Amino acid sequence: MKKKASKKKIANYFVEDHLTISKLVKSAVEKPINRERVLKKIEWHVNRHFYIEEKAFFVFLDFAKQNNPQFFRRFLSDHNHLLKLVEDIQQNPKSKKKALNLVKSLGKHVSFEVDKFYPYLEKNLDKKDKKTVIEEIEKSIDLGFYPLDKLRDYYKEKTDALLSKQ
Ligand SMILES: [Fe+2]
Ligand SMILES: [Fe+2]
Predict the structure, then answer these.
(1) What is the pLDDT of residue 36?
(2) Which one of 16, 34, 59, 112 has the minimum C-beta count within 10 Å?
């Protein structure tokens, strides 16, 4: 039987993905021989993961109801920083230093989401918003994703407002 949306936890949709990405990044550090192939996989997984998270939180949430914009700002600027690191490491696949930096930054972002951001959403979203977010995450998981920049064009106003306050 399918669980009711209100009983499901947002974090549950993402923890497995976090683990997959962390494992790939660690393997890129440890096995330089496969690094280029692993880096391509990392790029794909990171883009898909960010797409699903950002689509759920930026397209379907009513921001006027949120009382903690700094959490959304941190969430988004972490994503931007990680995307830059992923791009950068593709240009320098032999750099162990860059790979280690990615492991560290990814670890910090995952801790932020799991310890602060997802619990904040669990606690503060009203029933209707939480139901919508969960349904949209499930749809994205089923339907796949488009390039992140296309999604960001769609919600440009919201992200510009958050990033301009950094
Ligand atoms: Fe995440
Ligand atoms: Fe994230």
Answers:
(1) 85
(2) 16
Report H helices in the chain.
15-30, 35-54, 69-91, 96-112, 118-124, 127-143, 148-154, 156-164
Structural contact between residues 62 and 128, judged by C-beta atoms closer than 8 angstroms? no
Pick the ligand that lies closest to the CA of residue 18: 1
Cα(155) to centroid(ligand 1), Å: 19
Distance (angstroms) between ligand 2 centre and the Cα of 124 equals: 18
Q: Which domain holds residue 15?
A: 7-164
Give residue-wise pLDDT tens across range 120-130: 999 999 999 99
Examine residue 1 and state whether it is found in any structural domain, yes or no: no
Ligand closest to CA 76: 2
Residue-wise pLDDT tens digits, 54-72: 999 998 888 778 888 899 9
Mind listing the pLDDT tens digit for each residue in 22-56? Answer: 999 988 888 878 788 889 899 989 999 999 999 99
Q: What's the pTM value of the predicted model, to 2 decimals?
A: 0.83
Ion ligand 1: residue ranges with CB closer than 5 A: 14, 113
Q: Is the dihedral of CA 61, 63, 67, 73 positive or negative?
A: positive
Domain membership flag for residue 2:
no
